[in-house]
């Protein structure tokens, strides 16, 4: 068992080194990476397509890399936005890794790209442990997945800089308990901002783009308690202190408009 744990730690340590190198390389070219994590069927692709369309309308050079075990369906959907899109097939691997991402970006990512959205493999377990050199980590959950999703996947939601709820138009139909969901988020990631969206109705579309642009402009990110290094050790994305504004119930969340300061990780190209 010890040898297995040692191997896992070595793999994560190697990934952290690659993530630091990739973060520095992206910073040097003025690009911010956004890592999107969710379960399959969360509506992540539909929301990302809408955000990419909006980025194009605003004149923000954005690109997307999407990862799946098989098929190029998501890339074909995202390409409708007009943004540069690349599909990565992982051949059974349940997550992206920093070195893998760097290889796929090499020679493909347009020089003028300011925002790179990385749609990770639909899985809230393995991807949560791997830093991809992102500046903004986003965990998504649809209202159809249940209010206890954050408790079932505490690492994915506990390390997020932003939580996005999708398919908000179905909340009433499925009996989604918003108060319970927000309480569960607060348990695993105190103070993180939660935004509600619906790609179908347009509710909240643009908030993810706004948060990513804030990183690009040098804002400050939420600092997840789970991501604070202990005794000099750290697995997962780097963290910096951040802040936000809360509602009277103590939760950071919004419907169709922003609450709290969106966020940034220092992009140190040194």
Mean pLDDT: 86
| Spatial extent as radius of gyration | 17 Å
List the secondary-structure elements in sequence, H or E. Answer: HEHEHEHEEHHEHHEHE
CATH superfamily: P-loop containing nucleotide triphosphate hydrolases
Shape: globular
Unreliable residue stretches: 230-236, 238-270
List the helices and strands and how they pair.
Layout: H1 2-28, E1 32-37, H2 44-58, E2 62-68, H3 73-79, E3 85-89, H4 98-105, E4 115-119, E5 136-142, H5 149-152, H6 154-158, E6 162-166, H7 171-174, H8 178-188, E7 193-196, H9 207-216, E8 252-255
Helix pairs in contact: 2-3
Write up what this structure looks like:
The protein is an alpha/beta fold and 270 residues long. The protein has a single domain, classed as P-loop containing nucleotide triphosphate hydrolases (Rossmann fold), CATH 3.40.50. The protein contains nine helices and eight strands. The protein has helices at residues 2-28, 44-58, 73-79, 98-105, 149-152, 154-158, 171-174, 178-188, 207-216; strands spanning 32-37, 62-68, 85-89, 115-119, 136-142, 162-166, 193-196, 252-255. It has an eight-stranded parallel beta sheet, with helices on both faces. α2 runs parallel beside α3 (73-79). The longest helix has 27 residues, at 2-28. The model is unreliable at 230-236 and 238-270 (pLDDT under 50).
